[in-house]
Specification:
The complex is a heterodimer of chains A (about 200) and B (about 250). Chain A is an alpha/beta fold. In chain A, about 40% of the residues lie in helices and about 15% in strands. In chain A, the strands form two sheets. A four-stranded parallel beta sheet of chain A has the order 4-3-5-6. Chain A has a two-stranded antiparallel ribbon with strand order 1-2. In chain A, helix 1 packs across helix 2 (about 25-35). Chain B is built from six helices and eight strands. The chains are: A alpha/beta (about 200), B alpha+beta (about 250).
């Protein structure tokens, strides 16, 4: 039986539920939080409550935001005619950091993963199909991860969206900046050659 | 620590932290193994794209530590099965093969024959016109190579040959029951001589001849009983990826 105080133990139990946190890490984090007389606890509690109160799912792109529709979907300077489909909100924020894409997004909240039984019905695919039917965009960019699961999701979406007269594209796959050709795997090299561009 | 080298087919990888993953592989010499791949999800990791499900790799690793995980040393891609990528049904069939191997075999249960079956089936899948026959043959060969082959040449109760009479397939007994032994009662789903003949061929066939086999017209459901449903009854659970073959 744990000899920790009840409140401390409860905190550890909640922390243990977070991904990648085991009992030892939970204990270390809990001790970290109480070390400065509780100020860290208050800041963290306020941040968690704000997350619960302010963050909502955007009814247009299915991403997260503080309003509905989210900041990107309601921005008049964004090109509503180009939709970039990503697996997770993290992918959306990664693309936004690059400041290259000026269209809007659609977040699937995962990828088709047969080994875990995650099928199209578990993702925001129906929402994407309804959205594109209501307001057909000029182009849909499939930016799912270049994994087997991401590839399966992209091919499935392309099949579903085909025949609607939309331009459907897939993000380029190939060598990352700073990579060494010698260590690149065959699929990456194959995709790099398929996606080569004229200089 | 002794370094071991083997060919392996990647079954799956599970992310455990920002950069690390637990990778499950099916090796030629040591069966199913799990190892910890540190920093795999970081872009600069040279093994970043190598552990995709279904890829055949040459692996150097050291024996398992206290947590039952092997220590991965290096990896080279032998065959990425490029032809599977980009075609939905082929990808789903590959996922099904991988889940079946993962569920059917225990860790460190070495079975080189199953490894060659999986490798050969993924190769055939690259150029397969119809994946359905390949899936059924994979299931039947898997049963046969692990000692669970269904008894199809004689009634499991009286031992008499099937002849042309109406037969039932009994999951519990693992074989066919003749109409005389079943005494008019339903001892299991009915199967025709055509389906039995296909299943018998599927069990005995070697890799390079699989493409010659074709499921007889109208018998797909009966063949599914003898292969997939029997396999699931032996496994005791449904396979998550199976329904994707119908998508």
């Amino acid at each position: 039986m744990s000899s920790h105080p009840t409140a401390f133990r409860n905190l550890m139990e909640e922390l243990k539920k977070l991904p990648g946190i085991g009992p030892k890490a939970a204990e270390r984090l809990a001790f970290y939080l109480i070390r400065d007389g509780g100020e860290s606890v208050e800041r963290l509690a306020r941040a968690l409550l704000a997350l619960k109160e302010k963050i909502r799912c955007c009814s247009v792109c299915c991403s997260i935001g503080e309003s509905d529709p989210c900041g990107i979907c309601s921005d008049p300077n964004r090109d509503q005619g180009v939709i970039c489909v990503v697996e997770d909100p993290q992918d959306l924020f990664a693309i936004e950091r690059a400041s290259e894409f000026k269209g809007v997004y659609h977040v699937l909240m995962g990828a088709i993963t047969p080994l875990e039984g995650i099928g199209p019905e578990s993702l925001k695919i129906a929402e994407l199909l309804a959205r594109t039917e209501k307001n057909p965009p000029r182009e849909i960019i499939l930016a799912t991860n270049p994994t087997m699961e991401g590839e399966a999701t992209a091919v499935y979406l392309a099949r579903k969206l085909k025949g609607r007269g939309l331009k459907i594209t897939r993000i380029a796959r190939g060598l990352p900046i700073g990579a060494n050709l010698e260590y690149a795997d065959e699929i990456t090299l194959m995709k790099s050659f398929q996606g080569r561009t004229e200089l | 620590m002794k370094l071991l080298k083997t060919k392996a087919i990647v079954i799956k990888k599970t992310r455990i932290s920002e950069g690390d993953a637990i990778v499950t592989v099916f090796t030629e010499s040591s069966g199913k193994l799990r190892f910890w791949a540190k920093g795999l999800y970081f872009f600069r990791n040279k093994y970043h794209g190598m552990f995709e499900s279904g890829a055949c790799v040459f692996l150097t690793y050291s024996e398992r530590g206290t947590q039952g995980l092997c220590f991965f040393n290096s990896c080279e891609i032998v065959d990425p099965f490029k032809g599977i990528w980009g075609e939905l049904q082929r990808m789903f069939a590959a996922f099904y093969f991988l889940e079946l191997v993962d569920s059917w075999l225990k860790e460190s249960d070495a079975n080189p024959s199953v490894f060659h079956l999986l490798h050969g089936s993924l190769s055939l899948l690259e150029g397969a016109g119809s994946y359905e026959t390949l899936v059924r043959v994979f299931e039947l060969r898997m049963l046969a190579l692990t000692g669970y082959s269904p008894k199809l040449d004689a009634c499991v109760l009286c031992g008499k040959g099937p002849g042309k009479s109406c037969l039932c397939f009994n999951f519990e007994k693992g074989g066919i029951i003749c109409s005389h032994c079943s005494d008019g009662k339903a001892a299991g789903p009915k199967v025709s001589p055509g389906a039995l003949a296909f299943a018998a061929k599927g069990i005995a066939i070697s890799g390079r001849h699989i493409e010659r086999l074709k499921i007889p017209r109208g018998l797909a459901q009966e063949v599914e009983i003898l292969s997939h449903h029997f396999l699931v009854s032996r496994l005791g659970k449904k396979l998550k990826s199976y329904r994707f073959l119908e998508l």
